[in-house]
């Protein structure tokens, strides 16, 4: 993982006569200037607090990231290597039968690898159900971490469970068992159940843990080696942590998928064993760095406190008129009445042991959940990469390329483009004073990911498709007519088809590339920002829970996908891609219309912080240089 900043700064040197016990007041520096420093808290000691003018005019940059985060990112890389490395061959393992004479499922150079022979309906259904299970179990991981074990200990338990699942998966593919499809299927499903449980416990806690390694929460002013004064912004730092954390996810995914798509050509048990070996890095690194990590201890269940808070705040808001009730519940001052500072100490309930800041954090956490409600539509399109497109690639001309190799374009584009966004795109937007807020990034990601796919029925291939831009819905029908004409010409150029032979389209498998590239670009803006939004908007003792809620959108998407399974077969795939694309494109537009007021509120929140600073000035706390 590269360094998150190109400069280093020295600790501030305060004049020898300054009294450190009165931190937070004006200090005379050795260079003759004076600045307000943050109070001593062990995290922001000696850092210069920026003025309102500096906040508005100076360039904002990210801070240096501690090595603890690097170690956790490597753990994530190893876990994602094993998860995606094994998962990339699931479709072929389930859908296609064992090759004649094979005891390992190997398709060798030009053959199609397979084992269970259950068909495309079963492969799509099982892989979608597995995605659902992996998206539901994070709720258990969040509860265990927040209430009982803490995030780090829960991750350790998750690693042990997932390792057991990987071992069971290998058993399902070994010679002697793979030749018996029913037995192999039962063991395979058991492996998915155990692996999904471990994955869920892991996923809910690893992303909050990596961001928690950076403890600074307040911006401060430094001078870089060129002499330019800049503001080190913790918000940007967290954003960059998640960008490179996501890069490590996709680097692990890329390495695992590339190696395993070729490993399955030799045997499925090899394609399942190699990810298990790499997964062993997880417990080793966790044990080696256990004393270096910043850990959040478990707390009592915040769900009960949240329910009490919500009930208390909503008193007097209910009405027979649903419209009036909605207005009362969404009023700007809805949460103010539940703040402890507004209630006399004698009248406070026993459960009200929190402070005003936690109420504000709960409010922002709920707003984040309203944003997450749109993500199932997004994942509905993205998940086409893992099932239907992989099945479709097997019917195209591959010239020896494994049909599931193209799915690696997604992580490859992410690995290449994340640093480009970090070093070029985002700094350029800041230089041009363009506020590329999280909600704007998610909207762009939604629109980029809405690639409309249409797959008209072809006589030699039941699922060849064309890609058209996400909002041009009318062109999808034109593309169907166009591709039919192109395909008719290609058929005339090819030799007649021999009855009984597999029907393979003359179209090259790389025609799928645009879909993978566009969806990868969309993940940079939508998926990465979703993790960042979940962490930054959640109360500190609810971060695992809110992260689990974000991941739970994948479960909702999996349920929706199950409803479209009847379209996941020739000749209805044309309608599958058309429906997915239309829903996703409309969802992207509706998303921005629904959340743009939240984007404005976030800007108002920044201005409110500035107003609070003005109140401090009026109280006599000067912040002038």
Rg from C-alpha positions? Answer: 27 Å
What is the overall pLDDT average? 77
Any idea of the CATH class of the largest domain?
Mainly Alpha
The tally of domains stands at 2
Structural class estimated from helices and strands: mainly alpha
In CATH terms, what is the fold-level topology of the largest domain? Growth Hormone, Chain: A
The number of strands is 7
Q: What do we call the CATH homologous superfamily of the largest domain?
A: MFS general substrate transporter like domains
How do the strands of the widest beta sheet line up side by side?
3-5-4
Shape: globular
Note poorly predicted spans.
1-33, 452-501, 609-625
Transmembrane segments: 155-178, 184-206, 241-260, 266-288, 364-381, 412-429, 441-459, 515-535, 547-568, 574-595
Keywords: Membrane, Transmembrane, Transmembrane helix, Transport
GO molecular function, one term: dipeptide transmembrane transporter activity
GO cellular component, one term: plasma membrane
Task: Provide structural commentary.
- There is one protein chain.
- The protein is mostly helical and 625 residues long.
- The chain has two domains: 67-294 and 364-611, Up-down Bundle (Growth Hormone, Chain: A), CATH 1.20.1250; 302-354, no CATH class.
- Helices cover 58% and strands 4% of the residues.
- The strands form three sheets. The chain has a three-stranded mixed beta sheet.
- Strand 1 and strand 2 (34-36) form a beta hairpin.
- The chain is globular and about 80 Å long.
- The protein starts with 25 loop residues before the first strand and ends in a 7-residue tail after the last helix.
């Amino acid at each position: 993982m590269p360094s998150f900043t190109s400069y280093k700064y020295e600790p501030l040197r305060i004049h020898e006569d300054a009294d450190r016990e009165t931190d937070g007041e004006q200090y005379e520096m050795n260079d003759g200037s004076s600045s307000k420093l943050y109070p001593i808290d062990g995290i922001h000691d000696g850092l210069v607090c920026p003025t309102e003018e500096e906040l508005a005019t100076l360039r904002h940059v990210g801070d240096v990231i501690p090595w603890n985060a690097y170690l956790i990112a490597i753990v994530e890389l190893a876990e994602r290597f094993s998860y995606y490395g094994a998962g990339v061959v699931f479709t072929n393992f389930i859908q296609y039968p064992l090759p004649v004479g094979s005891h390992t499922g190997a398709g060798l150079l030009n053959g199609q690898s397979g084992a269970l022979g259950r068909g495309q309906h079963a492969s799509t259904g099982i892989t979608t159900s597995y995605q659902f299970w992996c998206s539901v179990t994070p709720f258990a991981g969040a509860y265990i971490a927040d209430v009982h074990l803490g995030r780090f200990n829960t991750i350790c338990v998750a690693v042990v469970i997932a390792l057991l699942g990987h071992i069971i998966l290998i058993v399902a593919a070994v010679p002697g068992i793979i030749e018996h499809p029913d037995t192999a299927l039962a063991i395979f499903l058991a492996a998915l159940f155990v692996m999904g449980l471990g994955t869920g416990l892991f996923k809910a806690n690893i992303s909050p843990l990596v961001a928690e390694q950076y403890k600074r929460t307040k911006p401060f002013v430094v001078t870089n080696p060129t002499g330019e004064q800049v503001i080190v912004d913790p918000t940007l730092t967290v954003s960059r942590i998640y960008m490179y954390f996501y890069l490590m996810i996709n680097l692990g995914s890329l390495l695992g998928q590339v190696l395993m798509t070729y490993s399955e050509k030799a045997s499925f048990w090899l394609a399942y064993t190699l990810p298990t070996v790499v997964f062993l890095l997880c417990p080793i690194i966790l044990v080696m760095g256990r004393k270096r990590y910043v850990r959040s201890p478990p707390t009592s269940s915040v769900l009960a406190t949240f329910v009490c808070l919500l009930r208390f705040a909503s008193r007097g808001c209910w009405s027979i008129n649903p419209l009036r009730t909605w207005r009362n519940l969404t009023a700007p001052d809805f949460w103010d009445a539940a703040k402890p500072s507004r209630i006399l100490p004698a009248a406070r309930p026993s459960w009200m042991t929190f402070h005003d800041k936690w109420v504000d954090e709960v409010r922002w956490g709920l707003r984040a959940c309203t944003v997450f409600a749109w993500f199932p539509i997004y994942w509905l399109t993205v998940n086409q990469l893992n099932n239907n497109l992989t099945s479709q690639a097997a019917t195209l001309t591959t010239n020896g390329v494994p049909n599931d190799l193209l799915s690696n374009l997604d992580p490859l584009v992410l690995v290449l483009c994340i640093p480009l966004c970090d070093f070029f795109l985002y700094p350029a937007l800041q230089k041009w004073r363009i506020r590329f807020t999280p909600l704007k990034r998610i909207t762009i990601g939604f629109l980029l990911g809405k690639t409309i796919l249409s797959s008209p029925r072809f006589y030699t291939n039941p699922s060849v498709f064309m890609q058209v831009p996400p909002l041009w819905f009318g062109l999808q029908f034109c593309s169907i007519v166009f591709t039919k004409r192109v395909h008719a010409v290609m058929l005339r150029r090819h030799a007649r088809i021999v009855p009984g032979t597999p029907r393979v389209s003359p179209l090259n498998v790389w025609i799928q590339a645009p879909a993978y590239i566009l969806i990868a670009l969309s993940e940079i803006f939508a998926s990465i920002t979703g993790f960042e939004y979940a962490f930054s908007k959640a109360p500190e003792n609810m971060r695992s829970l809110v992260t689990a809620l974000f991941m739970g959108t994948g479960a909702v998407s999996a349920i929706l996908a199950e409803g479209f399974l009847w379209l996941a077969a020739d000749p209805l795939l044309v309608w599958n891609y058309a429906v997915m694309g239309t829903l996703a494109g409309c969802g992207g537009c509706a998303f921005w219309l629904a959340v743009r007021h939240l984007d404005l509120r976030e800007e108002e929140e920044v201005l409110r912080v500035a107003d609070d600073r003005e109140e401090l000035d009026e109280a006599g706390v000067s912040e002038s240089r």
